[in-house]
Amino acid sequence: MSSLADFMVSRLAEALSDYNALVKSLERYQEVLISEYKQRRSYMVGKEPGSKFLIIGDLHGDLDTLKKILNKVDVSVMKGCKELELTFLGDYIDRGPNQLETILTVLELKAEFPECVTILRGNHEPPPFLIPSPHDFPHELRLLFGYEKGTNIYAKFQELFSSMPLVQYVNKTFVALHGGLPTENYRREVTLVEFFMGVSEDQFNRLLTEILWNDPIDITNVDRKPSPRGAGYLFGSSVTNWFLGKYNFKFVVRGHEPAYEGFKLNHNGRVVTLFSRVGEPYFNKRAAYMFVDTSAEISLKDIKSYVKVID
Ligand SMILES: [Mn+2]
To answer: Under CATH, which architecture does the 4-310 domain have?
Structure first.
């Protein structure tokens, strides 16, 4: 048996060997993301149920935890994309010790197994109009490569960020995104694609902000209220229940918020938060990820049993 972690370590060393190799790798990743975007013509990845999914939350430069998770996967199950799909919920960089290695590992996985790896965009993979704080990744690159080369590499990463999908869904099963359900189209008669992507560029930018920044709130009788983060909204269980009922999904899985045990449940278990990194500046005890077999019936009352924690 050869673990996916060992396999990725050698690929990562190649991509990182020098500046020119890195630029070439980034261009290769961009080709993969852009060709998929052109095929879908949307920032949504839709699937039919049938596969097993391993879902990973915020990493923020925690390469060690990512390796621990990938260690549990045999590389052979990824070949041919028949047995397992990987979904990443965004926030690969900022605030962590191995930001570049972490995002390159994720991108390399995408390039190696394009049909069974989905890398969603987080708010730390930002558009220029919505930079989070801190956003130390560009500084990190300039420290590593010098000002000019570091700036060039960051520009290539910005192209990658804007090519990443925002939402993955598996019909009748789950919706995965970084922050939360957008509230703007709550209770409106719109298609699933319109619900997330809107019908104009202005609306798309508002929905993008919500998808990347929203958090669930458990206070009843609140549909939405502005987020204390300064961007996005807090969305109530009314939004979740309406959304899941109307579009026929069982639950929403998202990252974005640290959780002491690596995960938390909101809205009666219908919103699962995964946080897949440990260490400063966060104080969570564990990292978590999720394993969902979409060929089997989903039991909402056992939703916790789909979550795996690592110490
Ligand atoms: Mn986030």
So the answer is: 4-Layer Sandwich (3.60)
